């Protein structure tokens, strides 16, 4: 069993839950959804995770979670929970693994658009763009602390391995 951590206040929460549930079903994995939209609810959700004895945690992408990164990583560490996050910043803070868009690349892309608008371009004339840079980051120190061995195939694909 794995758990998905979502912020119910996020307008994308329902879609995220549906997509992850579909993927879990396809892999034959039981999924439990834990919801937290406040700092105190994060603590409660982690306590629920521990009681469920789930094997891993997927932290959904959410600006609120990004602002509580240190709390999330500390709780995962304290409770010895293997967790995967969307952004590398969690892994740099001590999280186990991340796979997702590069925040730095997305911010750079946004800055280019702002520059174009400030130089007179009409926003409606600019094309819609999607992220193009995705990163896989693994923290071997965290893996060791959790008693996990990261397969060489994952390490070979990683954009960064923290040792």
In short:
Helix content is 47%, strand content 19%.
Summarize the structure in words:
With 163 residues, the chain is of the alpha/beta class. 47% of the residues lie in helices and 19% in strands. Strand 1, helix 1 and strand 2 form a beta-alpha-beta unit. The protein starts with a strand and ends with a strand. 22% of the residues are buried.
Going across the biggest sheet, name each strand in turn. Answer: 2-1-3-4-5-6-7
SSE-based structural type? alpha/beta
The biggest sheet amounts to: 7 strands, mixed
Number of helices: 8
Strands, helices and their partners?
Elements: E1 2-6, H1 13-27, E2 31-35, H2 39-52, E3 56-59, H3 63-67, H4 69-78, E4 83-85, H5 88-92, E5 97-101, H6 103-118, E6 134-139, H7 140-145, H8 152-157, E7 160-162
Parallel strand pairs: 1-2, 1-3, 3-4, 4-5, 6-7
Antiparallel strand pairs: 5-6
Protein traits:
19% strand, 163 residues, 7-stranded mixed sheet, 8 helices, alpha/beta, 47% helix, single chain
């Amino acid at each position: 069993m794995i758990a998905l951590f979502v912020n119910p206040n996020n307008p994308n929460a329902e879609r995220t839950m549906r997509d992850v549930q579909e993927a879990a079903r396809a892999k034959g994995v039981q999924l439990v959804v834990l919801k937290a939209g406040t700092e105190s609810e994060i603590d409660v959700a982690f306590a629920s995770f521990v009681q469920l004895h789930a094997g891993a945690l997927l932290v959904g992408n959410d600006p609120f979670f990004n602002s509580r990164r240190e709390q999330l990583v500390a709780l995962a560490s304290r409770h010895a929970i293997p967790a995967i996050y969307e952004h590398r910043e969690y892994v740099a803070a001590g999280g186990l693994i991340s796979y997702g868009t590069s925040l730095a690349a997305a911010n750079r892309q946004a800055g280019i658009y702002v520059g174009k608008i400030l130089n007179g371009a009409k926003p409606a004339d600019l094309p819609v763009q999607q992220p193009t840079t995705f990163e896989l980051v693994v923290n071997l120190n965290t893996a060791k602390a959790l008693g996990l061995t990261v397969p060489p195939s994952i390490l070979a694909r990683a954009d960064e391995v923290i040792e």
